[in-house]
Amino acid sequence: MGIKKFIESVVELLELDEFENSGKKKSLKRLLEKLKARKEILNKAVKKKITKKEKKELKEELAIVTVQIKKAEKILDELNNKKEAKVSKKIKDN
């Protein structure tokens, strides 16, 4: 999945109406913060006294958010590694 598609899917998942795409890394960092906040909210909601059906739905959403967090962190690491590789290559060339 491309970075743009990933960002679009997470924005849709979090139901963000006003999300501004600036740069890939900056957008991913902001989405990662929002995903982590959503995960905390879901963890608290699962612990409340609710019906089994609601609890199951919350756990499913929590699993999805957790997977999205892992994907975002992986993509962010890849972007950071690409940048570091370019910098080290420029240093070696000079």
3D structure, described in words:
The protein is an all-alpha fold. The protein has helices spanning 3-13, 24-47, 52-93. The radius of gyration is 17 Å and the shape is elongated. The mean pLDDT is 80.
Task: Please state the overall shape, judged from the principal axes of the Cα atoms.
Answer: elongated
N-C termini distance: 35 Å
**Mean pLDDT across every amino acid position:** 80
**Helix vs. strand class:** mainly alpha
Low-confidence stretches: none
Number of domains: 1
Write the layout of secondary structure elements.
Layout: H1 3-13, H2 24-47, H3 52-93
Helix pairs in contact: 1-2, 2-3
Please name the defining characteristics of this protein.
mainly alpha; single chain; 82% helix
Brief overview:
The chain has 94 residues and is mainly alpha-helical.
